[in-house]
Amino acid sequence: MKVSPQYLDRFFSEAKRRGFAFLSLSQLHSALVEECALPSRSLVVTLDDGYRDNLTEGLSVFERHDVPFTVYLSTAFIDGDHIPWWYALEGLLSARRSILWRGNAISLESPAEKNDAFMRGRAAALQSSLGAETYIGEICAENGYEIENLKELFLTWNDVRELHLHPLAGLGNHGHRHLNLQTVPREVIREEFVLAGEKIARHTGCTPVHYAYAYGLFTEEAESVLRSLDAATCVMTSPGRLSAGEHKKLLALPRFMLYEGMSVDALMAQSAYVSLRGFLKR
Ligand SMILES: [Zn+2]
């Protein structure tokens, strides 16, 4: 998780004190489709990728506050044979004081330089025609850096089954290999979601109907694939809020990223700002 369990605990307490209701994705889906009223202050909690700490650190906090949540699984990470490229990049940059990037020397003396290299590397990887994983794999090889196997960071299939049986937890489909769907053809988008759905069904007996775009990156092609797969919802990472009856947004649901220390007030201010900006753009 990006935030500590202590912070999450405080955030849930504060949100409840301020009158927020916590809904599951299925409750949100029903409210949007059936146009029934939502509580005026509602929040839905989702977690991406399938990190193990969702279970080991997060679950007890969700239980303490009776907060439903959905975990979107990238099934190649759960299979344990696939490590997210962003960990490889982070590992390489933190281990070295300089590296070669496709023949160009990059200095990594200060935290600012490392951070800058990470952000530029991330952007280049996401746009690369090789695919981000191959692109970063080649940079690691160029620098003789062996990528650490970090599969213990992710849930195992046993953990996934445990979550599946938990009354507060829901499972979602985040694609098999976490590809940037803006850079791959329709067949690959379809394969990403179908394969992940089949794997989750094989291990839990249920095929998820809730989806999340990898990196939160929406594409119309992916939305059309999801429609053909009868997806109920799909989330992005663009911020925004929803009103009852906005069923056109079901496959492009906005989200706010929670960061350590963010207060309920800060979330509400961000939400008001995004709504105002959307209103002014009309
Ligand atoms: Zn993700």
Describe the SSE topology:
Blueprint (H helix, E strand, L loop, with lengths): L4 H13 L3 E3 L1 H9 L8 E8 L3 H13 L3 E5 L1 H5 L5 H11 L2 E4 L2 E4 L3 H17 L4 H11 L14 H9 L3 E5 L12 H19 L5 E3 L7 H9 L4 E3 L28 H18 L1
Parallel strand pairs: 1-2, 2-3, 3-6, 7-8
Antiparallel strand pairs: 4-5
The structure holds zinc ion (ZN).
Features:
282 residues; alpha/beta; TIM Barrel; 2 domains; two-stranded antiparallel sheet; 11 helices; binds zinc ion
Described by the principal axes of the CA atoms, the overall outline is globular
Helix content: 40-55%
Small molecules held by this entry: zinc ion
CATH topology heading of the largest domain:
TIM Barrel
Give your account of this protein's structure.
The chain has 282 residues and is of the alpha/beta class. The chain has two domains: 5-80 and 153-281, TIM Barrel; 85-142, no CATH class. The chain contains eleven helices and eight strands. β2, α3 and β3 (69-73) form a beta-alpha-beta unit. The chain is globular, with a radius of gyration of 20 Å. The model has no long low-confidence stretch (mean pLDDT 94). Zinc ion binds next to β2.
